[in-house]
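We store sequence with structure; for instance:
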Amino acid sequence: MMIAVVALVLGVILGLFVLIPRGRNSGQVKQVANHGKVSRSYGKAEVAVHNKRTDCWIIIKDKVYDVTSYVEEHPGGDAILAHAGDDSTEGFYGPQHATRVFDMIDDFYIGDLKE
């Protein structure tokens, strides 16, 4: 009985070593999470020039999103343009947004904000 328990525990531990990604694969994991996009870092000044209906970037929690293709579909109309080229974190997490918006935003991710 004891041998069976030890064998089971060792099997689970070995299985975890195979299934859990290690440090050398962390770049691959990040790329999959970003839908295959390679992320860049952008400064606030660089984001700020993308402040029009036809070229709209926003910052949410220090991540940069190109939402240009979504501006016309935005249910709140031009409200999305209020912080175009700037930090939209507060408005994004406001009560007006349905929970599906939190899943959708990843599709527009282009990089991180430089500190």
Summary: Residues 4 and 25 are 33 Å apart (CA to CA).
